[in-house]
Specification:
Layout: E1 15-16, E2 44-45, H1 53-64, H2 68-92, H3 106-109, H4 118-121, H5 147-162, H6 167-171, E3 178-179, H7 181-200, H8 209-223, E4 224-225, E5 230-231, E6 233-235, E7 240-242, H9 248-251, H10 260-273, H11 302-314, H12 318-335, E8 340-341, E9 348-349, H13 355-366
Antiparallel strand pairs: 1-2, 3-6, 4-5, 6-7, 8-9
């Protein structure tokens, strides 16, 4: 992924393999201007990013290397690119006068069709170019985003292209600009993990403690909802919280930015809303937007559980964290390495033999 990094530090959410372009949509032809931004000529990429968990991954991968010399060599090799990446989110994606980064597309969240983004679905956006989906050829349409979702996704791609990926130009013509609670928490966690890498290498911190403290205060002010006792996203267009309950608010605890007492309250409140369902269903069953099989509108995902378990341990709920890991491994043992799982009976949904499900299960098993 770092080989596809842009000049401004952005790491694209897709780095295309030219041997398999016909097997994935949208391909690089939908991002024609992206290629002029890539630092290494010839790399084919998308024009958006993802939460910067890559930085946290680099920290954790290094910790698994028992040979300190090799561990430090790995961190020294990737640190410059990681520093540019954390700074990209911390600078290029900030609105004037605001500390939190702006997310410009639901795909950047990783939670494509979450009810958190339903205002976009209802906006009626349509792309100029016709398209043919590939994602629902091998997975049932009932488990995938709708065509209305895809219309909006591809229309936003065109708006980003029209703006040449400049945030202010895009914001002036787009209905979708969000402070994503999970992305913001991931940035805070990534910044701290990058500082840990720097400390291990006897380098100065990449992000100052003062800046992190200011970010944490802005996070709480934007995302914490006292009445709901939950963390929500923030709509930058309406300047208000998107008061749609989802597992993103508890997965965000993994970033270490939430106040512990609020983190505990958010977990208990969300668990109460999801009573009767498996943990952690992505949308509470009683919510009118809940769809038990449709991608990010209800199913259980192991990556969400992995984040939530890490977050629970950080806010002082170690017992709940261990229980969540045990439940997650039981899902895998009974139903295999599915992309996601039915929130009631655990039956497998989406693609089978899913690589990140396998990777996270191994991480849990290896402790």
């Amino acid at each position: 992924m770092l080989a596809a990094q842009w000049w401004d530090g952005m790491v694209p959410h897709v780095h295309y393999d030219p041997r398999h372009l016909a097997e994935y949509f949208p391909g690089p032809d939908r991002w024609p201007r992206a290629q002029q931004h890539v630092r290494n000529p010839g790399q084919l990429t998308s024009g958006i990013s993802n939460p910067p968990v890559l930085i946290t991954s680099a920290w954790l991968i290094g910790l698994r290397q028992s040979d300190q010399r090799l561990r430090h060599a790995f961190w020294r090799r990737v640190r410059p690119a990681l520093a540019k990446y954390v700074e990209y989110w911390g600078s290029a994606r900030r609105r004037p006068g605001h500390l939190l980064p702006v997310m410009v597309h639901p795909w950047e969240s990783g939670w494509d069709n979450s009810p958190r983004w339903d205002a976009l679905r209802l906006s009626g956006l349509k792309p100029r170019q016709p398209y043919f989906r590939l994602d629902n050829r091998f997975v049932r349409a009932s488990e995938r985003p709708t065509d209305s979702d895809y219309d909006a996704y591809l229309a936003l791609v065109e708006k980003l292209e029209d703006a040449d990926f400049e945030l202010e130009r895009y914001r002036s013509d787009s209905p979708f600009c969000v402070h994503d609670v999970l992305l913001d928490a991931a940035w805070y966690g990534a910044a701290n993990d990058l500082n840990s890498i720097c400390a291990s290498l006897a380098d100065p911190p990449a992000v100052s403690g003062e800046r992190l403290a200011e970010f944490a205060a802005a996070f709480e002010a934007s995302h914490w909802d006292e009445a709901a006792q939950l963390y929500f996203d923030w709509d930058c267009r309406r300047e208000e919280r998107i008061r749609t309950p989802s597992a993103a608010g508890v997965a965000a605890l993994a970033g270490g930015v939430a106040k512990p007492q609020r983190g505990r309250a958010a977990w208990r409140r969300y668990a109460e809303l999801c009573r009767g369902a498996l943990a952690v269903c992505t949308v509470p069953p009683a919510d009118p937007n809940f769809e038990p099989e449709r991608y990010w509108r209800g199913p259980v995902w192991l990556n969400v559980n992995w984040l939530a378990a890490r977050g629970l341990a950080q806010v002082g709920l170690a017992g709940e964290a261990r229980a969540l890991v045990s439940q997650s491994l039981a899902l895998v043992q009974e139903h295999g390495l599915a992309e996601c799982f039915d929130p009631f009976d655990g039956s497998p949904l989406g693609a089978g033999g899913f690589s990140w499900s396998a990777a996270l299960a191994l991480d849990w098993l290896e402790g």
